[in-house]
Inverse folding.
């Protein structure tokens, strides 16, 4: 994900393993062609808040400390819903399910929260990258999440920097 402001491979791959194959965010996470309409709506309408963000940060930091690293994407042909995607991501490492549960997430909510954060990051980045902006369906942008991302940008970037530094070791 070199062109994304949310390039943390750990955030992207460790918990959202199949995202790369089935939801390359910009255009697809908003439209996700293989997903049922209810799942597309859930993605579009999921709204970040302080509680969710703080739990995401805590989960991310704990996963980094535990050495949970990116995995290869699973089989995209097996993904027909957000639940399939979440289960595939969580199933990639037996430590993931208990970790996210410890922080009050179901696999589905953890996936939705990450997609919401990543989509908001893409929208923020698209403001300075016209090519990326062309890929984003503005009618499906959750402006509350974009505002939330912008207000937490420094914290998000620090977390991503920490993840990149740990991966480099």
């Amino acid at each position: 994900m070199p062109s994304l402001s949310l390039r943390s491979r750990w955030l992207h791959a460790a918990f959202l393993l199949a995202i790369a194959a089935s939801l390359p965010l910009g255009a697809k996470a908003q439209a996700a062609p293989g997903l049922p309409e209810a799942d597309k709506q859930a993605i579009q309408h999921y709204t970040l808040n302080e509680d969710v963000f703080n739990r995401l940060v805590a989960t991310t930091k704990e996963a980094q400390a535990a050495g949970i690293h990116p995995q290869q994407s699973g089989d995209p042909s097996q993904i027909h819903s957000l639940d399939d995607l979440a289960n595939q991501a969580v199933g990639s490492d037996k430590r993931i399910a208990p970790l996210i549960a410890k922080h009050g997430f179901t696999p589905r909510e953890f996936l939705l929260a990450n997609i919401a954060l990543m989509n908001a990051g893409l929208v923020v980045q698209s403001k300075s990258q016209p090519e990326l902006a062309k890929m984003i369906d503005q009618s499906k942008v959750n402006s509350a999440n974009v505002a939330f991302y912008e207000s937490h940008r420094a914290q998000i970037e620090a977390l991503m920097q920490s993840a990149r530094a740990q991966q480099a070791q």
About this structure: Residues 107-126 form the longest helix (20 residues). The chain has one domain: 9-23+35-168. Confidence is low (pLDDT under 50) at residues 1-32.
